[in-house]
Design a protein that fits this description.
InterPro entries: GspF/PilC, T2SS_GspF_dom, T2SS_GspF_sf. By secondary structure, this protein is mainly alpha-helical. The chain has 15 helices and no strands.
């Protein structure tokens, strides 16, 4: 486990939950299991962190309080472990948390790939275009000059553009870097984050988190109000947060949980109908798990579609631009050569 950041990574959280779950399944006391993990820690940083957990537990502290005192575990995980300890379902909760953080790690990796790939491709495309205009076009201009002809039409415009780019190349590069920095800072601001969180992909991820949290809460024996409290703290999406508040108001006005979810538009009508059936059959937690899985599949599909569309689109744009430049210069050049011949 790395201690470079205050909160452990999703992969580290998943591994920890899985290990503690195996310890409980083996019938060992939790604190004793943590001591075993401490002895087998692969590095000093991990050992120090596990010792921070083990020492208070040896004196009688609960797992969730020991984790909380370290400051390296998220509030949601601590709350869910506390529920597991209070309801006697700690092993199930830890297994569910392990799967949850595995999924969060997959989503984070998918988003990084979906964002990084188009950015790299865009940078390469811009570099190719700049090189074409700044370095290749002057070669054509020299050929025209040697043939005793002048550039006209589109070719002349492009040649003029080439001269400006060569003259102000450093300024253009500086401006592009500044624009990239401004864009990066914008998406780090509250307004920028809200803008991103309104996208279909962000809403799909938030809905998946909400459904998973409600599944864990309901399967642990909590009521819907407590489940909504946990979910609202977890989703970290202002749009969905507003919808959860609407759901609370609807419940306080006498609506059932399924009716409140439908009217607050947290889920689509199809998912809301699943919830209505789950409410009548007493299988609400299972329905939430199915909704979570469905939202995860939708997230995967959106990421795959984005990557599959952006690659050919970038390549096509680059080919069109290069083809346009070549046609603008080569067609008049072929005409001159044929007239000379």
């Amino acid at each position: 486990m790395s201690r470079k950041s205050k909160i452990l990574s999703n992969a580290e959280l998943s591994a920890f939950c899985q290990q503690i779950s195996l310890i409980i399944a083996a019938g060992l006391p939790t604190y004793y299991g943590v001591s075993i993990l401490c002895d087998e820690a692969p590095d000093k940083q991990t050992r120090d962190l596990l010792e921070q957990i083990y020492k208070p537990m040896e004196l009688g502290a609960t797992l969730h309080s020991a984790l909380k005192d370290t400051g390296y575990f998220p509030k949601y995980m601590i709350n869910m472990i506390q529920l597991g300890e209070e309801t006697g379902r700690l092993e199930e909760v830890l297994n569910s948390l392990s799967k949850y953080y595995d999924r969060e790690d997959e989503i984070a990796s998918g988003i990084k790939s979906a964002v990084a790939y188009p950015l790299v491709l865009s940078a390469v495309m811009i570099a190719v275009i700049v090189v074409m205009i700044a370095k290749v076009l002057p070669v054509f201009s020299q050929i025209y000059a040697e043939l005793g002809s002048e550039l006209t039409g589109t070719a002349a415009v492009l040649m003029k553009l080439s001269e400006y780019i060569n003259r102000y190349l450093l300024v253009i590069i500086a401006f592009m870097l500044f624009a990239a920095l401004v864009l990066f800072i914008f998406f780090k601001t509250l307004f920028g984050k809200k803008f991103l969180m309104k996208t279909a992909l962000s809403m799909s991820i938030a809905s998946s988190r909400f459904a998973n949290c409600m599944f864990l809460a309901l399967s642990s024996g909590l009521d819907t109000d407590r489940g909504l409290d946990l979910a609202q703290a977890l989703v970290n999406n202002p749009v969905l947060d507003s919808k959860i508040n609407d759901c609370r108001k609807n419940i306080s006005n006498g609506e059932t949980f399924s009716e409140a979810l439908l009217h607050s538009n947290i889920f689509s009508k199809m998912y809301s109908s699943w919830i209505a059936i789950g409410s009548k059959t007493g299988s609400m937690d299972e329905v939430m798990q199915h909704i979570c899985t469905s939202c995860e599949d939708d997230t995967d599909a959106r990421l795959s579609r984005f990557i599959s569309v952006i690659e050919p689109a970038m390549v096509i744009l680059l080919c069109i631009f290069i083809g346009f430049i070549l046609v603008s210069f080569l067609l008049p050049l072929l005409g001159i050569i044929s007239s000379i011949g």
